[in-house]
Design brief:
Radius of gyration: 22 Å
Helix content: 25-40%
CATH architecture of one domain: 3-Layer(bba) Sandwich
CATH topology of one domain: FAD/NAD(P)-binding domain
Bound molecules: flavin-adenine dinucleotide
Structural class: alpha/beta
Number of strands: 19
Shape: globular
Distance between the termini: 9 Å
Strand order of the largest sheet: 7-6-15-16-17-14-18
Largest sheet: 7 strands, mixed
CATH superfamily of one domain: FAD/NAD(P)-binding domain
Length: about 500
């Protein structure tokens, strides 16, 4: 453990979840850490918006893998419960289909199996139990080597017992595997949806990613009381308590490299800050393009999908809705073909609706609700221009939402406040390459091996912590990415 003025200093570029996690882990080990953030707040994509008495999270809404946050805070000698109240959600999600089927997903396996049996029959209830066993087995095999350690190599894969290699089910797609467990197309669709948790398509991503169903359906999902943004505030508070200096509204312009070693950062204002190591929390591709000397290589990986967000203040209270709701499209293959093949926003998308005022009523004025609507969207390409076509698409989505509410509750909701975030905004605000939400997609079998490392292979003392590097996107994995980058620095500098 280090910890005086001679301790090595580290600059972290970006106060997103990855950057703050790395800063916390490093400061807890005695490093002197400075975080440079271009925005005026922590959290990056984990943001919040307030307007006219309403409050919304503008990024993540589902928090899984609670032990990851416990681990981060424990590494700093703290108890996460002193910083964040994790509220378990029940149901985790309410699923709606156009044929009138409604299913509440709960984490209790017996209760969930009983609900499936009532709705779809005994065979599917048994299929559900078998599927959950299969997802748990996947978790047992892949969690340690793929999530909690250094980036896995193909050699690690070869070292796994042959029986385990077969069990990770990387040769089938998620959809091919899921449909062997269920007769009801509803359940196939429900479990395919977990591909979107890392911005991929269930028709392309390897079945190994069915592990995500275990993470949410067996381990549970939480809502940080006060809004998901409270988690970013908690990271910021802990970092500051540990002596991290966080400089907001301070964009980095360049990572300084001398003789193949990262030696500091030049800010957009022209200040030079020296350091023994630099952690880059900025999206990997974007950082390569804007902060580092060009090495002539192009990143061939496919970005993850992006998202189109509507934040709506809504008159009335809608008892048929839960905290998390999904309104499924009738044609899931077409939705993903729109996103990943045609690079167009889906014409008939699945709508995700989160209403935090169900759990925190003060997030909307009395008699109103705060709706966060998310539609999966393609990463930016010339096929669709959000600046000129975003308005029209927003109207399209609101009409879809109205139709759903009419069907479910027989009423037309009245939207009194509206804010939007398009894939273009996600790129412009956070520097997410092509507006990708989760870095790179996992649409190929070897995506986990192709993802960039936390330690740069060419430039010494340069490290990456974000959703675009190992182990991937989503709040818990990005937190693990920060811990992995900090571990690399400790190995190299201590
Ligand atoms: C709409 C939406 C919904 C989501 N839903 C979920 C969900 O339900 N559950 C889940 O787990 N995940 C979800 N995610 C994904 C999750 O938010 C991300 O995986 C995670 O927050 C990414 O964190 P990060 O640290 O990698 O990057 P970011 O959050 O992008 O942080 C990068 C930081 O770097 C800063 N930066 C960029 N350039 C510079 C520069 N030059 N100098 C200084 N600072 C700079 C940015 O301002 C930003 O603060 C969602 C994301 C979005 C957008």
């Amino acid at each position: 453990m280090l910890g005086d003025v001679r301790s090595p200093s580290v600059i972290v570029i970006g106060a997103g979840i990855g950057g703050l996690s790395a800063a916390i882990a490093l400061a807890a080990r005695g490093f002197r850490v400075t975080v440079l953030e271009k925005l005026d707040r922590p959290g990056g994509k984990m943001g919040e918006v307030r307007a006219e008495g309403f409050r919304w999270d503008s990024g993540p809404s589902v928090i899984t893998m609670r032990p990851v946050y416990e681990r981060l805070f424990r590494a700093a000698g703290r108890d996460v419960r002193d910083y964040v109240e994790f509220v378990p959600l029940r149901p985790v999600t309410r699923y709606f289909w156009r044929d009138g089927v409604v299913l509440d997903a709960v984490t209790d396996e017996d209760e969930m199996a009983a609900a499936i049996e009532r709705q779809f029959g005994k065979r599917d209830a048994e299929g559900y139990r078998r599927f959950m066993q299969y997802a748990r087995r996947l978790h047992d095999i892949v969690a340690a080597p793929f999530l909690y350690r250094h980036k896995p190599t193909l050699r690690d894969l070869v070292r796994l017992p042959i029986a385990d290699v077969l069990k990770i089910d990387a040769l089938r797609t998620m959809h091919q595997a899921i449909r062997t467990f269920f007769d009801a197309p509803h359940l196939v669709q429900l479990f395919c949806r977990f591909a979107t948790y890392n911005g991929s398509s269930p028709y392309r991503a390897p079945a190994t990613l069915n592990v995500i169903a275990h993470v949410e359906m067996a381990q549970g999902a939480w809502y940080p009381r006060g809004g998901v943004f409270q988690l970013a505030r908690a990271y910021e508070r802990l970092a500051c308590e540990l002596g991290v200096e966080v400089r907001y509204s301070t964009p980095a312009a360049e990572i300084l490299v001398t003789n193949g070693t990262a030696v500091g950062v030049r800010t957009a204002e022209g200040q030079t800050l020296n350091a023994e190591a630099v952690v880059c929390n900025v999206d990997y591709t974007f950082a390569r393009q804007t902060l580092l000397p060009s090495n002539g290589k192009r990143q061939p990986l496919e970005p993850s999908c992006s998202g189109f967000v509507l934040l709506l203040g809504v008159r009335g209270r809608f008892d048929a809705l839960a905290h998390h709701n999904i309104f499924f499209t009738d044609d899931y293959p077409c939705e993903f073909a729109d996103i990943f093949d045609r690079c167009l926003p889906p014409s008939d998308p699945t709508l995700y609706l989160c209403v935090t005022s169900k759990t925190d009523p003060e997030h909307a004025p009395p008699g109103y609700e705060n709706w966060f609507v998310l539609v999966n969207a393609p990463y930016l390409s010339p096929a669709f221009d959000w600046r000129s076509q975003g308005e029209h698409y927003a109207e399209h989505i609101k009409a879809k939402l109205m139709a759903w509410l009419e069907r479910i509750c027989g009423v037309h909701p009245e939207f009194v406040v509206e804010r939007r975030l398009t894939p273009q905004d996600l790129q412009d605000l956070y520097g997410g390459h092509r507006g990708a939400i989760y870095g790179f997609s996992s649409n190929t079998r070897l995506a986990a091996f192709a993802r960039p490392n936390n330690r740069d292979p060419q430039i010494r003392r340069l490290y990456f912590a974000s959703g675009s590097v190992h182990p991937g996107g989503g709040v818990p994995l990005v937190t693990l990415s920060g811990l992995a980058a900090a571990r690399c620095i400790e190995e190299d500098l201590c």
